[in-house]
TrEMBL record:
<dbReference type="InterPro" id="IPR017911">
    <property type="entry name" value="MacB-like_ATP-bd"/>
</dbReference>
<dbReference type="InterPro" id="IPR017871">
    <property type="entry name" value="ABC_transporter-like_CS"/>
</dbReference>
<dbReference type="GO" id="GO:0098796">
    <property type="term" value="C:membrane protein complex"/>
</dbReference>
<keyword id="KW-0067">ATP-binding</keyword>
<feature type="domain" description="ABC transporter">
    <location>
        <begin position="6"/>
        <end position="246"/>
    </location>
</feature>
<dbReference type="InterPro" id="IPR027417">
    <property type="entry name" value="P-loop_NTPase"/>
</dbReference>
<dbReference type="GO" id="GO:0005524">
    <property type="term" value="F:ATP binding"/>
</dbReference>
<protein>
    <submittedName>
        <fullName>ABC transporter related</fullName>
    </submittedName>
</protein>
<keyword id="KW-0813">Transport</keyword>
<dbReference type="GO" id="GO:0022857">
    <property type="term" value="F:transmembrane transporter activity"/>
</dbReference>
<keyword id="KW-0547">Nucleotide-binding</keyword>
<dbReference type="Pfam" id="PF00005">
    <property type="entry name" value="ABC_tran"/>
</dbReference>
<dbReference type="InterPro" id="IPR015854">
    <property type="entry name" value="ABC_transpr_LolD-like"/>
</dbReference>
<dbReference type="GO" id="GO:0005886">
    <property type="term" value="C:plasma membrane"/>
</dbReference>
<dbReference type="InterPro" id="IPR003593">
    <property type="entry name" value="AAA+_ATPase"/>
</dbReference>
<dbReference type="GO" id="GO:0016887">
    <property type="term" value="F:ATP hydrolysis activity"/>
</dbReference>
<dbReference type="InterPro" id="IPR003439">
    <property type="entry name" value="ABC_transporter-like_ATP-bd"/>
</dbReference>
Amino acid sequence: MSEEALVLRDIWKIYRTQSEEIPVLKGVNLSVNQGELAIIMGPSGSGKSTLLSIAGGLERPSKGRVIVGGVDITDLDEDELTKIRARKIGFVFQSFNLIRNLTAVENVMMPLIFTGMYSWRQAREIALKMLEIVGLKGHEEKFPRQLSGGQQQRVAIARALAPSPDIILMDEPTGSLDVDSASRVLSLVKWLNEAFGQTIIIVTHNPEIAELATRTFYIRGGEIYQQPPTSTLADKVKELKSSAGYGSFAKVQLDLLKIKLEALEAAAKQGKIPPEVLEGELKSLEARISKLEKYASS
Ligand SMILES: Nc1ncnc2c1ncn2[C@@H]1O[C@H](COP(=O)(O)OP(=O)(O)OP(=O)(O)O)[C@@H](O)[C@H]1O
C-alpha cells in the first residue's frame, strides 16, 4: 500500500461564470503521508474548501490528478466515486451535516451501509463503538436537536471514522463551536490521529489547530506554500494606505466627521448636550478631522 494517503498533482480549478473565468487553484501540488495531521490555512476565498472538495472527490479539478490511498480517482465515474468515497474518505464539515430525523447511532451507521459491505447488525455494532470512542455513550438514541453543538460535531467525527477511511477531511471542524467545545473536539481529533494513525487533513482559520499539525500548508493567490506568508499586519496596513481607494476612503470619513460636528453644535445650541460634555467631544472630533485632512490631501 502507498505511503502517501493523498497526492494532488498540478491541480487547477477554474470557475466559469457568464462573463468571466475565475482561476481559484493554479497548479497546486500537495502530498500528505499516512498518519499525518495536515492543516491547510489561508485567507477567506483563497480556495481552501475547493481544494478539500477536490481532494475528497466531491468536485472535479479543471486539470491535474487526485490520488487517494494510491488510487487515482480523477477519471472515475460518479458511481465508482461514490463507492470509493464511502470506503476511503471521511468528511467532517463545519455545519455537522447530520440527518435531522435519524438518531446519533443511525447517523453514524449511514456511511457503513453506503459501502454495501456491512450488514445492518454489523453497522450498528461499529456505530455504537465509535460513539463510545468519541465520548457519547448514553447519547446513542438521541436526535441531533437533542445534542449540543460539540456533541453533534463528535457524532459527525464518529460518522467520518466509522468506515475506517484512509483519510478524514475536515472543513473548519470547530468553526461553529464555542472555545470549550472546540478544544474538546480538537483534543479528540489529535488523539484519534495518534492512537489510530488516522490521516487527517483540516482546513481552518483556527491557529490553535495549527499547533497540533504535523505539517501545515498555506494557500495564497491560488498557489500552495509550506512556509507561512512573510507579510506582517504592519505590511498590510502600509499596503492599504498606499492603495488607490484609501484617499477617497479618508475623504468619506472626513465628510462624516464634519456632519457629526455640525450635528453636535446644533444639539448643543438646543441645550441637548451639557457644555462640559460638548467641549470634550468637540476637541476630540477636531483632532480627528485635522488628522484626516492631512491624509486626504497627501
Ligand atoms: N461554484 C462556484 N462558482 C464560482 N465561483 C466559486 C464557486 N465556488 C467557489 N467559488 C469561488 O472560489 C473562491 C474560493 O472559494 P473557497 O470556498 O474554496 O474559499 P475558502 O478559502 O474556503 O474561503 P473561506 O475561508 O471563506 O471558506 C471564492 O472566490 C469563491 O467565490
